[in-house]
Amino acid sequence: MCYNVSVKSSKEILQSKFEAEYEAAEDMQPYYQVSGFIHPKLPVIRSDNKGLIQHCAWGLIPSWVKDETQAGEFRTMTLNAKAETIFEKPSFKYSIKKSRCLVLVDGFYEWKTAGKNKYPHFIYLKNKEPFAMGGIYSDWVNKATGEIIKTFSIITTEANQLMADIHNTKKRMPLILSREEEKKWIEPELNEVEIKNIMKPFNENEMEAHTISKLITSRDRNTNVPEVSEHFHYTELALP
Q: Which fold has domain 4-238?
């Protein structure tokens, strides 16, 4: 699964890396760590405007959702969409066909289970550059207020070897796109076979990970700080 990400690159870096303009109306807020369960707005490039980086809320709300109560229930359950069932689920099957997007991040967080303990890890690319996760999007209109809410979900796949070792209970990982796949992913004319061919585990040889402190789960301290992703050594994990 993928419920915690880091989005700390500047607006200028994202514009240069992904060859798109940042939406002028939105201010860039760095997230050293943020949970999808608070439904943050993250930088996204959508297939309906491939030259624009815009902010969308994490937690997809299908366009057919009736009201705010139902929307609130849906968005907590749609932070992730499984690649294996995405064409079947009512919440996702329309978006995956034509409404795909790039979710721009610097890394993500996952926990390794060892005995009775869980150890947080920060995962990123070896080149330490921002990268794109494959996602889907939907615009929902709040009929009570007329507000249009732009939302998205991050797609997950089975884990590669690196992620299977870290996320060793569910063995999942977010869909990470190569540079070649990024532009292809947001081409609306892709057919189902072409889409499925892209939804594969990313090459583990291009990824790195390290353990971090349990600051990330603190309820008393601010976790949106650079220190949250710094390496922390757990002596017990080095034991046989």
A: hypothetical protein yedk fold (3.90.1680)
